[in-house]
Each structure stands twice: as C-alpha cells, then as structure tokens.
Write a structure and sequence with these properties.
Shape: elongated
CATH superfamily of one domain: Winged helix-like DNA-binding domain superfamily/Winged helix DNA-binding domain
Strand order of the largest sheet: 2-1-3
Helix content: 25-40%
CATH architecture of one domain: Orthogonal Bundle
Largest sheet: 3 strands, antiparallel
CATH topology of one domain: Arc Repressor Mutant, subunit A
Strand content: 5-15%
CATH class of one domain: Mainly Alpha
Order of helices and strands: HHHHEEEHHHHHEEH
Number of strands: 5
Length: about 325
C-alpha cells in the first residue's frame, strides 16, 4: 500500500515573468503605466558619481511640466532638505550635464534665470531658438485666355517678396558659479577667571567641591583633567567671599535637560555668574602725637595737631 510523501513540495515556485526568480536581491513587480509617467535613463538612475539627492532631484525636475519654477526656494518648500543640500545637488547636475542655468535680461530690463533640464547629457537645446517665420508667397491669378483669334496677353510674374531675416539669438551670459556668503568668525571664548593669590587651601577646597558635585547632581560627572581646568575659577569665587554652598547652588541650579557637556556648562556659569571682587574696607588714618602739645590725633604723617596748627600765625606775630 502506497503512503503519501508529506515532505515533498506540493508545487514548484512560479518564476517571475520574463526572468527566473532570483535567490536573493530585489524582485521587480512591474505594472504598465498608461499615463502620468516619466521615462528616466539608467545612466541617471544608476549614476556612479551623483549623490542620491541629485538623482532624485533630476528625476523630479524631468517629471515637471515646462514653465515650472525649479529654483532653490521652490524646491526647499517642496522637499524637507535644506537650501544648502539642494543647492549642492543642483551644482552636481550642472557638472554632469543634466542641468544648465543661465541668466538672461528681458526687454524690460529684468534679469531672470533660465533652467534647462537634459534627460540625456550632451544633447543640445537648439529647439529653444525660435525658427524664422516665413511670409507666404502671393498667389497670382491664372491668365485668362482671350477669344480666338486674338492672342492671350503676356502676364509678367511679380518679383518674389524678400524673406524677413531671422532674428539674431540673444546672447546668453554663463551662470556664475555659486559662492556661499562668507560667515563672520566666531568670537573667542572668554578666559576662565584666575585668583589673585592662588593659595593652596583655596585650590584644594575648589577641587574637593568639583569632585563631590556628582553626589549632589548625578548629571554632572567630571574627569580629572576637567577638574584641574575648572579648579582655579572656583578658587576665584572663594577668594571673592563666596561660600562653598553658594558656589554649588550656582553651578547646579536649574540645569538644562539633557545636559550633554557638563564641563562646558560649568565653565560658562563660572564666567557668567562670577561675583564682583571684595572692595577693601575703609581704614582710618593712624594715630600721631602732636609735636607741640603731645596730644593724639589722626593723620597720615606726623606733625602738629589741628589746634596747634591754627595757633601758629598768632605765635609768629607775637
């Protein structure tokens, strides 16, 4: 009695129409287009030097009807890419012969940019030059035969009308290469504050505070090199009378989320929130003993007191 072979395949896999089914890679499922389609050559779709953005942009431009604006701003409004990327892709298409942009001056004086898209690099655009319009030749009536025996009059044909010469093509100015506007250089970063007298005890306290920051704020974790770089600035805060608790509060209060560069953030706050230096307190002039009456008085230099100085004119006159 025969048994059914359950391990054998029920039927062979059907091949793709026109070619055998590949074991790996892409499989094309093609449907025939009858309207609203654009023919693009493989020399563009599989170009080895153009970027993917340039290939897609060339395909989009070739699918547009004649007269559509394809400047950088209209394309930026249409696609999510930036103006810089679209401008770079247009320059790629110009270098490889798929696009040509020229600037022309209209009769009213306005300068416009003419864009020509080529589906095949190296083709000419002679069809853009208007062909000369020829004036139709005048139709002469056929001569009327005279009744016999009179002879038919001899009709002299009129001279042909001279043709109007074709207008000379407008001179096309080549488009100047795109040069991005120069950007102003960034100003240098302000230096970190340095203490007037780098006392060892201030630097030690600053190092301890920076090392202990991650215990209070886990988002701030500094390396040994970053702590050595920031410690003099923290010591400057201590030199100007700021307590460690106040420094810690100024550095860790209202942190941005997420905090990507803790060392740069602390450097900015140490510079921007630096307290002013302590102004020295007023010190009175030292005490001096009067040379005449031996009374104490305050003066930066020794000499006579105010009363003895006022009596000096009377003593001289006596």
């Amino acid at each position: 009695m025969d048994t059914q072979q359950v391990s054998a395949p029920s039927r062979a896999a059907s091949p793709v129409r026109g070619d055998a089914t590949p074991s790996s890679g892409v499989v094309h499922i093609n449907s025939r287009h009858t309207s609203h389609f654009t023919v693009v050559g493989n020399h563009l779709a599989q170009h080895h030097e153009l970027s993917l953005l340039a290939i897609g942009l060339a395909t989009h431009i070739q699918s547009l009807p004649a007269g559509t604006k394809v400047g950088i701003k209209p394309l930026t409004e249409r696609f999510p890419d930036s103006e810089a990327r679209i401008a770079a892709a247009l320059r790629e298409l110009e270098v490889h012969g798929y696009l040509r942009r020229t600037r022309e001056r209209l009769p009213n004086g306005r300068v416009v940019t003419r864009t020509c898209s080529y589906n095949q690099p190296g083709s000419t655009d002679a069809h853009l030059v208007p062909a000369p319009r020829r004036r139709p030749k005048p139709i002469h009536p056929a001569p009327v035969a005279a009744p016999a025996p009179a002879l038919a009059p001899v009709v002299t044909p009129a001279p042909p009308t001279p043709e109007t010469p074709a207008p000379a093509p407008t001179a096309v100015t080549p488009a100047s290469p795109y040069v991005p506007a120069p950007t102003a250089p960034k100003p240098p970063h302000p230096p970190l504050p340095q203490p007037t007298e780098p006392l060892p005890q201030l630097l030690h306290a600053a190092t301890a505070l920076l090392t202990d920051l991650h215990r209070h704020t886990p988002h701030i974790t500094l390396t040994e090199r970053e702590i050595r770089h920031l410690a003099p600035a923290v010591a400057t805060w201590f030199e100007r009378g700021t307590t460690p608790a106040a420094v810690r509060q100024a550095l860790t209060n209202d942190l941005p989320q997420p905090l990507r560069f803790p060392a740069k953030f602390l450097r900015h706050r140490l510079i921007a929130l630096l307290p002013p230096p302590i102004t020295p307190a007023y010190q009175p002039a030292p005490l001096q003993n009067c040379d005449r009456c031996d009374r104490a008085f305050r003066s930066p230099v020794p000499g006579n007191c105010h009363d003895c100085t006022a009596d000096e004119p009377h003593l001289l006159s006596a």
